[in-house]
Amino acid sequence: MRPAVAQRLLEVPGGLAADPLRRFLRAHVVPGAERHLDGVHERVVPTRRGPVEIRIDLGTSPRCTTVVLDAPGDVVDEVTPLVRRWLDLDADHVSVEAWLGADPLLAPLVAARPGLRFPRAVVGAETAVLTVLGQQVSLAAACTFAGRLVAAYGTPVDTLVAFPGPQALAAAGAEGIQAVTGITGARARTLHALATAIADGLDLEAAALDPVRAAAAHAELLALPGIGPWTADYVALRVFGDSDAFLSGDLVLRRALGGMSAKAAVARAEPWRPWRGYALLHLWTAEVFAP
């Protein structure tokens, strides 16, 4: 018999800029593995007894101070800290906004969206795979490719499907991945190399807990074929939780900065340390995820 669903009200210190977070989550929905409707997001998360479906409700207002979590009662206490980290609910936003708000470029963005949160990873391997799928293609295309992976290699869980783990993708081989997704051969080989590395011991979850391990994992990612600084730094932001990671070559960032070069972007961002990741999020949000 399926465990009864339990509800938790997750308080958000300082409040949450809910509208851009809803837009971010909706834009990144993986078909088959996630659903999003009117601020309600559903997906599968790992637990000690296996994958389970959960639901979070951000409401429909521009801001909120409480996120509603629904999860199976026997694992809701285990899932709660995972969701808090995923939605960045416990970050020190007072310090972030005081620091970035002193910059004339960022000040109006910070003032417009207090409580902007940086969505982290639910599962490190999943986010890393999605990042590779998103290389040099639109977000919509990346989600389509990811949905094909889910349909081919995912594990059904109630009404959704769990994203395939690295072992399944490593066993599929590069040719199998290319056949089901339609991505290029080079991209399929990169994804297979990543999945194999994780299956063989590249522990992205441990890297999120230890800066030394994070640095080693970042270097290991860069050593894989087809993974460059943009991919490794994006994983650092979302998986390792490195709030100072900065994607200097990102096209949206450079557009937001008036078309400057990656080298110039690094220099411009120096005053934003140690919160360059949040500065990046504010610029991304203004360009892509604002109403």
What does this structure look like?
With 291 residues, this protein is of the alpha+beta class. The protein is 50% helix and 15% strand. It is built from 14 helices and seven strands. The strands form two sheets. Strands 1-5-4-3-2 form a five-stranded antiparallel beta sheet. Strand 2 and strand 3 form a beta hairpin. Helix 10 packs antiparallel against helix 11. The longest helix has 16 residues. The radius of gyration is 19 Å and the shape is globular.
The share of residues in helices is 40-55%
Morphology call = globular
Strand order, sheet with most strands: 1-5-4-3-2
Task: Give helix and strand order, one letter per element, not per position.
Answer: EHEEEEHHHHHEEHHHHHHHH
Give the averaged pLDDT, no decimals: 95
Uncertain stretches of 5 or more adjacent residues: none
Structural category: alpha+beta
The total of beta strands comes to: 7
Total of helices = 14
Termini separation: 43 Å
Biggest sheet details: 5 strands, antiparallel
As a whole number of angstroms, the C-alpha radius of gyration is 19 Å
